[in-house]
Design goal:
This protein has about 180 residues and is of the alpha+beta class. The protein has two domains: about 10-150, OB fold (Dihydrolipoamide Acetyltransferase, E2P); about 150-180. Helix content is about 20%, strand content about 40%. The protein has three helices and eleven strands. The chain has helices spanning about 65-70, 145-150, 150-180; strands at about 10-20, 20-25, 30-35, 50-55, 60-65, 80-90, 95-100, 105-110, 115, 130-135, 140-145. Strands 8-1-2-11-10-9 form a six-stranded mixed sheet, with no helix packed on it. A five-stranded mixed sheet has the order 3-6-7-5-4. A hairpin with a 2-residue loop joins strand 10 and strand 11. The termini are far apart.
Length: about 180
């Protein structure tokens, strides 16, 4: 509602892109740029969907392959493959990340009426980084929860859990060996 008492409908703009034939969207206000694919510098011990880092105007930017992140079939990077550079919020600070996608599609204005909630799929399907579904004419666009898409804290917790499990398993082996010796 504005100062004169008239209800003003809030529009949100989304940059959409193609990934494995489906159209996805991210809030346009998070997009810092779009550029062609370039070779990355790999980072050891990073998750498999982190391609590495690039130097973007003096800033080191991690590059995430969304096909790997979504467990989709890998394809060769082509002329339409692009990196969408976005700003995400992690631990109360802004982080720049590049998202490798098949191609950029369009920019759409969507209001609240155009959005649908993500259906419940149960525990077998992780839809935590899907904000909702945008209806645009006759098609649906998957709107991503970009801040959860690349949650470094979750990645660190998983790595910590995995290393804890390895330690626990090796301790269990030592305990059973000691029991047999006794």
């Amino acid at each position: 509602m504005n100062a004169s008492g008239v209800v003003v409908e809030e529009l949100n703009q989304y940059l959409t892109f193609i990934l494995d034939g489906e159209e996805y969207g991210v809030p346009i206000l998070t997009v810092r740029g779009i550029q062609g694919w370039e070779k990355t510098t790999p980072i050891p011990n990073s998750p498999n969907y982190v391609m590495g880092v690039i130097n973007l105007r003096g800033e080191v930017v991690p590059i995430i392959d969304l096909r790997k992140r979504f467990d989709l079939e890998m394809i060769s990077y082509g002329a339409h493959t692009v990196v969408i550079v976005v700003s995400i919020e992690q631990s109360n600070k802004q982080i720049t990340v590049g998202l490798v996608v098949d191609a950029v599609s369009d920019v759409y204005d969507m209001n609240e009426e155009d959005m649908r909630k993500t259906p419940e799929f149960g525990a077998a399907v992780d839809s935590s980084f899907v904000k909702g579904l945008g209806l645009i004419e006759e098609k649906m666009v998957i709107i991503l929860e970009i801040d959860r898409l690349v949650d470094w804290q979750i990645v660190s917790e998983k790595d910590l859990l995995a290393s804890t499990l390895k330690i626990t398993e090796s301790d269990a082996g030592n305990v059973s060996a000691e029991a047999e010796a006794a």
